[in-house]
Amino acid sequence: MQLTNINIPLLCIDRWSLSADQVWTVLGGNGSGKGTLARLLCGELDAMAGITDAPKRVHWLSLEKQQALYERELYNDDTDFTDQLDPGTCVQDLLLEVAAPWSSRHDNVVEQLQLAPLLARGYRLLSSGEGRKVMLARAVLEVPDLLLLDEPYEGLDVVATQMLEQALAALVAAGQWVIMLVNQKQDIPPWTTHLAWLDHGRLVLQGPYSELQQHPDFHAALRYTEVESLHLPVRQSAFQLPDWPADEPLVRLRGGRVAYGDLVQFDGVDWDLWPGCHTQISGPNGSGKSTLLNLITGDHPQCYANDLTVFGYRRGRGETIWDIKKHIGYVSGNLHRDYRVAGNALTAVVSGLTDSIGVYQATGEHERELATQWLAIVGLEHRANASFRSLSTGEQRLVLIARALIKQPPLLILDEPTQGLDDLNRFLVLAAVERILKTGPTTLLFVSHRTDEQPALLQQRLSFVPQVEGPSLYHLVQESLI
Ligand SMILES: Nc1ncnc2c1ncn2[C@@H]1O[C@H](COP(=O)(O)OP(=O)(O)OP(=O)(O)O)[C@@H](O)[C@H]1O
């Protein structure tokens, strides 16, 4: 079977047979062809030749599909016409969309994935992890012939990951045909019976998992970039904070509060972010991590209702959002979701200098050169002219990381930055971040659900902890990590 893009083979598989009684996991790094393989199995692409007896109803669960549902919801958004926030389709209706009427199966899935508090909530308002759980529930309810699970654990907190592991094990045991697509070995589920290793569009290893685990190639060491050998471009003085006093916080929040109607997400948060105090923000899915970060970047409407000072600007006193954003480099699932403009990879990186989604002014040679250097650091120099939207999800994420790092800003906000990245790219990104922190006055705010992903230089942790009783859903606990 061969699939080509003009003259470039995207996927070239000589022989691969699979049956419903085998549980395959396809392992492949970013750009290896997993997405193309999934599209092919779903019937979204035509192979040049060679597929026989393909399953008819295939459900592909992926970050791409999550994005597609979000875009559908945005398209139907009536906020501009009704003068109030249109929450879009509620979770309950999204579950009914794939299987109606409501039955005990719905009740089971809702219980398994703990979706009850979200049923009446609009999809667009969900946190990234909550959205992921809804996508999973839809996939399971559809009972497809084949369920393709593409990085199903991305964005889930520890509890949700365990819940999903159990739910998937039960599904497989009940006879659901499942193929997993993962980009790292530690995500291969224990119930895998067969493994296929995809590299540059080719299956380089395939067979029973127990046998392949003994194969020398399976254990080949990854060649990680040494942090010290990473060469970063010169820091851009235009975005720095000259002579910022060490005893003045970059961010000061007093009595911080966010509420939606009667639902108080958090309240009474007093927090100072001191220069150089690299901080991890942790908490379960939907606890308010991104909300807190969006208050700082000015992307949350309630930032003006709070006693919040960022870079010396008391919010709501006439500063522009650009005065604040100028000193921040930012990457998050929400940014990725909203980065929907035309333009190539290089322009997307340049847009980090103007803090815009897309570029709307002439860019100079210097900006383009700088962006090219950052694309090279994330290994995508050769994709500079490719349209951003045509890149794989992992490649898009790398471009957005380069966009966040290009300024080597005073405040770097990385909200689950490595979602969708393979081991090598994950390491590369964290190494580049560490190098930035070591070589200049950048302070890091970092969110990740992964326990194997903690930058060494973290000094403080802010944890959102559920309140069993009390006026708000979560309270914030601060602890020193040094
Ligand atoms: N306009 C809104 N109305 C009601 N609830 C909202 C609204 N906007 C956000 N929320 C809710 O606020 C909560 C916090 O969301 P946030 O994105 O900050 O979570 P998070 O901690 O970053 O989660 P994750 O780890 O899943 O990314 C979520 O439960 C979300 O559904």
TrEMBL record:
Protein name: Molybdate ABC transporter ATP-binding protein ModF
Pfam families, A to Z: ABC_tran (PF00005)
PANTHER family attached to this UniProt entry: SKFA PEPTIDE EXPORT ATP-BINDING PROTEIN SKFE
Protein origin, superkingdom: Bacteria
Gene: modF
Gene3D superfamilies, alphabetized: P-loop containing nucleotide triphosphate hydrolases
Organism whose genome encodes this protein: Saccharospirillum mangrovi
PROSITE patterns the record matches: ABC_TRANSPORTER_2
GO molecular function, one term: ATP binding
Stretches assigned to the ABC transporter domain: 1-225, 251-480
UniProt cross-references to SUPFAM superfamilies, sorted A to Z: P-loop containing nucleoside triphosphate hydrolases
Keywords of this entry: ATP-binding, Nucleotide-binding
